[in-house]
Design a protein that fits this description.
The protein has 242 residues and is α/β, with parallel strands linked by helices. The protein has helices at residues 10-14, 33-36, 39-44, 46-60, 67-78, 93-96, 157-165, 181-186, 223-239, and strands at 4-8, 27-28, 31-32, 83-87, 102-104, 107-114, 120-122, 142-146, 168-172, 190-194, 217-219. It is built from nine helices and eleven strands. Helix 6 links the parallel strand 4 (83-87) and strand 5 (102-104). The chain starts with a strand and ends with a helix. The structure holds zinc ion (ZN).
Length: 242
């Protein structure tokens, strides 16, 4: 059965005004990324990190999904069970757009996680006050649910599973800096890269100089503006091509 693997990143949410540390060399909303997004930073100052994610949650409340989120949610609906969407984004804009089944590889802003039993629970946009307890085991040591540098990302195992199952790979708004998309693209005969900029490959030993050269199709547009082109290729892939 033909199936679609989508891997999305910051570029998907950029048009909704979501900024990440990738925008400004190691800074995220003027905070040092290693202070707010590493296990060392978390051990050094839990309160500082908690306040940082409280602010991000508060920010997110008023952000709206853009055209790309809406179209991807529609795609999931139209090809039910045949789309595997893995996102590196921690925002909930895909869900706000109506998507039901998106895997957040780097965690979610609107959940907290128990440090004892690892259960996650939704807090919406509410600030974490420090007096929360886990609804599953009653433990009081709860934390934000964002994967930090220095710890494992448990959902990464789903990448391999998606590669195994799918026949079309679509990378949207991800520079490949965190997850290398070149080896994934190499696994697919059919692939689409959506990025407004051509990105150079990281290694000079790569046979190509640009990431887009590893993809069957390159749509050099912002995510929201690339949807019509993307849908035309998907339709052809799913309906006609063997
Ligand atoms: Zn617990």
């Amino acid at each position: 059965m033909k199936k679609i693997m989508i891997l999305s990143g910051a570029g998907l949410s950029a048009e909704s005004g979501i900024r990440t540390f990738r925008d400004h060399d190691g800074l995220w909303e003027n905070h040092d990324v290693m202070k707010v997004c590493s296990t060392q930073g978390w051990i050094a100052d839990r309160q500082y990190v908690t306040r940082f994610y409280n602010d991000r949650r508060c920010d997110l409340e008023f952000k709206e999904p853009n055209h790309a989120h809406t179209m991807l949610a529609q795609l999931e609906h139209d090809y039910r069970g045949r789309v595997i969407h893995l996102t590196q984004n921690i925002d909930n804009l895909m869900e706000k757009a109506g998507a039901k089944d998106v895997t957040h590889l780097h965690g979610t802003l609107t959940d907290l996680r128990c440090e004892a039993c690892t259960e996650t629970f939704n807090v919406g946009y509410a600030p974490q006050e420090g007096n929360e307890y886990c609804p599953n085991c009653g433990n009081k040591r709860v934390r934000h649910n964002v994967v930090m540098f220095g710890e494992a990302a448990p959902e990464y195992s789903q990448l391999q599973e998606a590669i195994r199952q799918c026949t079309l790979f679509i990378a949207i708004g991800t520079s490949g800096a965190v997850i290398d998309i070149i080896p994934i693209a190499k696994e697919f005969k059919h692939s689409i890269l959506i990025d407004p900029k051509r990105q150079k490959t990281a290694s000079k030993f790569d046979p190509h100089s640009y990431i887009d050269e590893y993809f069957e199709h390159f749509i050099q547009k912002k995510a929201g503006e690339a949807m019509d082109d993307m849908m035309a290729i998907i339709k052809e892939h799913m309906d006609y091509r063997l």
